[in-house]
Design goal:
The chain is an alpha+beta fold and 371 residues long. The protein folds into three domains: 70 residues, Arc Repressor Mutant, subunit A (Orthogonal Bundle), CATH 1.10.10; 207 residues, Bira Bifunctional Protein, Domain 2 (BirA Bifunctional Protein, domain 2, 2-Layer Sandwich); 42 residues, SH3 type barrels (Roll), CATH 2.30.30. Helix content is 27%, strand content 23%. The chain contains ten helices and 14 strands. Strands 3-4-5-9-8-7-6 form a seven-stranded mixed sheet, sandwiched between helices. The chain is elongated and about 80 Å long. It starts with 24 loop residues before the first helix and ends in a 16-residue tail after the last strand.
């Protein structure tokens, strides 16, 4: 007990021992904080052997047996199934289907992406939270994840449907060394990374629709939203928001989206390990992003075009009340959509694209060209 300078400390009054109520799972999950170090060490030790005694945990981690019990209870509140076996110790039976930092980090092979994770059980928008972190100086690669968003956002002011505990709603803080005019290429490059992460789960079914939607069998499975903080000649930060429908059921989509949206599980019939996918996406993003910064978007154009569902097809493009149309040639080295239109070759910088006749059942795939 600390005393104010210059005054003696008062003796602590004797108190009766009381049983402290453990915080609820909802309370723990809402805290946007890193996983407690001691709890993480308890968890790592429990993974190292079938059964671990409380005494061993106490000795290895250098905390009391009471502290070990409290952290085991904290893990249980987060959804970990930990059995206490009389005279033997603790056994880790199962881990929760939650995007907890301690679970994602153990699968990462990145240097920056996902090395600092902020987790929410629920938030308004991961992009909003990531923007706040960026303004506060968060390092590049900081990842914000949420189990559910109440005001998830997509491109052109649209909302993103975000049911709880089934998909990935994530935002990354980036600090690119790009001119502001080239920053939109980050969204295009991110689409390649998302396609790479999805391809092993649904081989031959992944496609990209310009500028950065990802599709499975012609229906939208992922969307990307980039928001930039910049001056005329300098980018301070970019927040890269990514939503991927992993295990969303058909009835979780609003009726008006059921014909155009899908999830990986709906297409493949297999439940996706969300933690493993998140780690894989971090790796794909870091590889693609670093190549973009080193070599420019031209180094990614071939892979982007290989995934494209638009190349060779007739489309209409709307932007700022103007509409144009033509046959898509592909993307150029600056990320512009190249059309053969009524006035000849056109290069489209931004807009909302509609494929004439619909996307259909696409079977577009590509191998990674990153090296």
């Amino acid at each position: 007990m600390r005393a104010k300078s210059g005054s003696p400390a008062r003796p602590r009054r004797p108190t009766r021992a009381t049983h402290r109520r453990q915080p609820s799972r909802a309370t723990l999950e809402r805290r946007p904080a890193s996983f407690p170090d001691v709890a993480a060490r308890v968890l790592a030790t429990l993974r190292s052997a079938p059964v671990v005694s409380g005494e061993r945990l106490s000795v290895d981690i250098h905390v009391s047996r009471t502290a070990i019990w409290k952290h085991v209870e904290r893990l249980r509140a987060l959804g970990y199934r930990i059995d206490a076996e009389r005279t033997r110790g603790y056994r880790l039976r199962a881990v929760p289907d939650r995007l907890l930092a301690v679970e994602i980090e153990r699968l990462l092979d990145t240097e920056r992406f996902g090395r600092h994770i902020v987790y929410f059980s629920e938030t308004d928008s991961t992009n909003v939270q990531a923007t706040r972190l960026a303004q506060a100086g968060a390092p590049e690669g900081t990842l914000v994840v949420a189990e559910r968003q109440t005001r998830g956002r997509g491109r052109l002011g649209r909302s993103w449907v975000s049911p709880a505990h089934v998909s990935l709603y994530a935002s990354f803080v980036l600090r690119p060394t790009l001119a502001p005019a080239d920053a939109p290429q980050i969204g295009l490059a991110a689409a390649v990374a998302v396609a790479r992460a999805l391809a092993p789960l649904a081989p031959g079914k992944v496609a990209i629709k310009w500028p950065n939607d990802c599709l499975l069998d012609g229906r939208k499975v992922a969307g990307i939203l980039t928001e930039m903080d910049a001056e005329i000649d300098r980018v301070h930060s970019v927040v890269l928001g990514i939503g991927v429908n992993l295990n969303t059921s058909a009835r979780a989509f609003p009726p008006e989206l059921r014909a155009t949206a899908t999830s990986v599980q709906l297409v493949t019939g297999r439940k996706v390990d969300r933690v493993a996918f998140t780690a894989a996406l971090c790796g794909a993003l870091e590889a693609v992003y670093d190549r973009l910064l080193r070599e420019g978007f031209g180094a990614l154009v071939a892979e982007w075009n290989a995934y494209s569902c638009l190349t060779g097809r007739e489309v209409t493009v709307e932007c700022a009340g103007q509409r144009t149309g033509g046959r898509v040639r592909g993307l150029d080295a600056r990320g512009r959509l190249v059309l053969d239109g009524p006035r000849g070759e056109e290069h489209i910088v931004a807009g909302d694209v509609t494929l004439v006749g619909g996307c259909g059942a696409l079977r577009t795939g590509a191998k990674s060209n990153d090296g």
